[in-house]
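User: My collaborator sent over this chain with a note saying "see what the structure looks like." That's all I know about it. Can you take a look?
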Amino acid sequence: MHWWRKLRLNPLARLGALLLIGLYGVALGANFFAPYSPYETQINGSLLPPTQIYWRDANSGDFFPHVYPTTQGSVNLETGEREIQVDYSQPSALRVLHRDSQGHLHLFDTTGPAKINLLGTDEQSRDQFSRLLHGSRVSLSVGLIGIAISFPLGMVIGGIAGYFGGAVDALLMRFVEVLMTIPGIYLLVALAAVLPPGLTSVQRFLLIVLITSLVGWAGLARVIRGQVLAIKEENFVQASQVMGAGAFYTIVRHVLPQTATYGIIAATLAIPGFILAEAVLSFIGLGIQQPDASWGNMLTLATNASILVLQPWLVWPPAVLIVITSLAFNLLGDGLRDALDPRTLKS
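Assistant: Without extra context I'll predict from the sequence alone. Here is the result:
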């Protein structure tokens, strides 16, 4: 387990792994960490800024963490900003580990009429923090499911092309090259645009994953094919053939496992591409549709110039999380590449 010790000693790889553990842990526990439902709206609560937490009551002077009911007032015609109205007569204390009326346990919420919106509210008066956490389930799962589909496909096709060679190799590689010449984003947009308009978010999510997977395996297949061309000349492969093992058995049992190191590294580095693809499709309105949340469709608010200027807290959190997730996978992938390098494993 020399590679495991080397991976643990890599501080950047550890950082990437810890970030990913935290991100996926919060996504799995979104119902617990989010104070509200991602679909719940607040009365007169459109485009509220992040809620300010107070520690001492303005009226009684008592010391306890609380918030006050906050609503949007009229628009200032000179600046375009909305006036924030705060009702200081109804302090609502913060509480932790509380069950709502539906029996769902939440990490925190409030006891009174006031709501706590850590990242403000969107145009539909929904808590942005809750939507960000629930949207992480979609954005983070796209990469894992996409890899689970595309990488076995790429490895098997690359293995078949490299093992058999000849006409099979030429036919498969020409198809791979044609697929690689098509710009991925344009192909994704074209395929997503022809989806039926009446699809549910679950159906659209599955189709997006399928589309991204079917266009993401070509590069891996080409590299695996090159590795298999060298591996099939090894003695253990020749021995398997002499003993009468079938071609498919030899490929799956003896050849492809020798490419596992590269496959693990490539899979880790490719996951951010799937996450970005979903974000782009949702950003341009061809991915996950409202009212369901994903980091991509939350970024659609960035197309509104007034929100970019007056409510930047609605745009930055999903953008930053996409960047952090991509960076974490790249850090972990680079660490795996260094740890699994055959030249260092022998040292």
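A starting point for your reply to your collaborator: The mean pLDDT is 82.
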